[in-house]
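Build the 3D complex.
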Amino acid sequence: MRDHVTPRRVVIIGGGFAGLFAARALRRSPVAVTVVDRRAHHLFQPLLYQCASGILSEGQIAQPLRKVLRRHPNVDCLLAEATDVDAEARLVHARRPDGGALELPYDDLIVAVGMRQSYFGHDEFAVHAPGMKTLNDALDIRRRLYRAFEMAETAADAEERRQWLTFALVGGGPTGVELAGQIREIAGHTLDREFRTIDSAQARVLLFEGSDDVLGAFGPHLARRAARTLRSLGVELHLGTLVTDVGAHGLTVRDRAGTTTRFAARTVLWTAGVEAPPIAAALARATGATQDRAGRIAVQPDLTLPGHPEIRVTGDVMSLNRLPGLAEVAMQSGAYAGRAVRHAVEGRTKKPKPFTYRDLGSAAYICRGRAVVKMGPLHLSGVLGWFVWLFIHIAFLTGFRSRLGAVLSWAVTFATSARRERAFTSSGGVPRDRPPRRT
Amino acid sequence: MRDHVTPRRVVIIGGGFAGLFAARALRRSPVAVTVVDRRAHHLFQPLLYQCASGILSEGQIAQPLRKVLRRHPNVDCLLAEATDVDAEARLVHARRPDGGALELPYDDLIVAVGMRQSYFGHDEFAVHAPGMKTLNDALDIRRRLYRAFEMAETAADAEERRQWLTFALVGGGPTGVELAGQIREIAGHTLDREFRTIDSAQARVLLFEGSDDVLGAFGPHLARRAARTLRSLGVELHLGTLVTDVGAHGLTVRDRAGTTTRFAARTVLWTAGVEAPPIAAALARATGATQDRAGRIAVQPDLTLPGHPEIRVTGDVMSLNRLPGLAEVAMQSGAYAGRAVRHAVEGRTKKPKPFTYRDLGSAAYICRGRAVVKMGPLHLSGVLGWFVWLFIHIAFLTGFRSRLGAVLSWAVTFATSARRERAFTSSGGVPRDRPPRRT
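Done.
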């Protein structure tokens, strides 16, 4: 594609939901689309925790981007990390995995780089408390979860055993809640009768959240229901607490009254916050765009940047009307940006309508048979919520060849508590031996 | 189990086929069995190459050892690496993943530690040419295979592109042949129409083998058939060659005439040889047992060590009558050792019959619809061989819950060329940036 007489060139940075939906919206346009991502796969992020907990395999939640876009002959996928944007020359600078440089000229740029885990200025926590944003994170968490029980089985004394059987989760959003439910299920059901020395069901799960609610975004009613369900599962909720330190053997938190408490736990997982990746700051520098505190880029109602009608920012990294970082927002904004380019190519001169997000609702899975779902005025929880969750996720996996596989894996897991994907590699050593991950 | 009044204690080092079958043979004996392995899973090694090539997931070829042995209440599984044997005190010394020490006293010891990849004194090759013995190896190879095509797509020039599209395999045994077939299938079918710049079908696969035959163990007839099939698939065979150097950009080989040739290839995979892990030498030192050139431990006809009727060596690491390193030999010798302990516990005084290997045949998969099978006088190849291969592997996956999953994955792959498990993580960087793996 790159060596021919060039049609209008659209570069999309990022192959997540926003980037994918932007590329799809350009399918029938006479444009040359380049999707550049530092990973070769598109990840179905809402089910990442199920990969971490051993229900689904990597291939069931991640498919090669170029396979997903195979029937889009005008789309080229490149494995490289965008490092800078030259808004004057209309060039994206990117780096290949071996360090080689690429220059990608564009006529239109769609930025869909997403957000990464934030440790609120304490990046040193990452060594001890992995986040949950990438496939690598999920495999790391899978390793830590199942290895913790193995380590408890051979622990030198009762205190060390208790520490290996204590799991601390930082962040009470959907990911934290989903992981908490998964760990209690693994401890109480999956590992049933497998250990001789420890009783896996004794494992403690502590959930730390800065606000007064878990799943606060679902409103007070569902938040209360979720808290009750978590407590009935044996999850210990510590609301209104801020984590001030994380180490290999536990974490320290401060409550509203200023009291500091230390909790011993050999496994700490972090889902507390997000921040924009470095390319967002580079884009802001190049265009004069403004960033919010987390680094999101402020966009105009049509998702373009002020003074740069050729640059559109979509998905989690877009700052517009305080829209939340949800897969649905990413899909709709990505598709909007793609359509806007298509309309421009088609020569439509009418100013496009501003982007509006159609809230189709949101859902969080707590455990087998329990989920909370918010769809407009409809607030569901318990078994009914769970059925709706199941239906939504089966529907959304459309286009993924692995939908049938995921449904079969769920059927087996829900029916028998068995988890098929429990194998972990020994790479990485135990937490304290690991080098920092965020380079 | 460990704190009670102690029944006869059997320690099994290694949870591969030999260790697993030994533990199973002791199911109904009043003994306390401890299986110690540095990995928490039992690996179905014969299908490891299918995990590497993206057909099967980790969970389809590896299951937690303690789950496989869940219904054996007298078996305790420990995640630790055996580091030494004190044959006087009858103690196995082991190291937990965090470095902590364990001491495992035994009345009977069954050694089933297997073999690891050997680079014939050139361990420095491992950085550039991973072996194929562990789940980690398979995921590393999966990453290198699929990333090579991605790197070719963005290559700076035609020469670099050619190098990324050249795959060199060292070793013409079943694993090398299976990988060669898989790479040609990936290049020609799986990736069909996914790339815009490169033609993946142009990928070259070079297979280097020191002897005059690929699959020499199958006899001259099947070896010739296999060579013909590989050539028809486009695999370039370089027989009678020895690899003298491996680097990030290729390898150097010497043929029988002494001529040295350099081949440029950015992906080199090593399946050429095996050697015993360090614990074998430790055992030999502790017992005075002798090792063969590859480090295998010489055993008596009843698999015990001279002067140590309480120590039995089984599986790949056992040296007896030049038996090959096959899953079937491991299963039969492990089961024999377990039964011998059972008979001793039951007070049978009759000297046991020597171990004899019943050769049930062997099989190697070349590509979709092509395999070679040797069962006694029966030599099969082509489609018939393939059907027999399929039947054997479906039968042997019994006991693995994932048998149905594997069969479904095969059905999809064979019918459509699609491979579900192509997602790879970015950890590890490109080959030349990787630290040595063999520490």
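Chain B touches chain A through 61 residues (CB under 8 Å).
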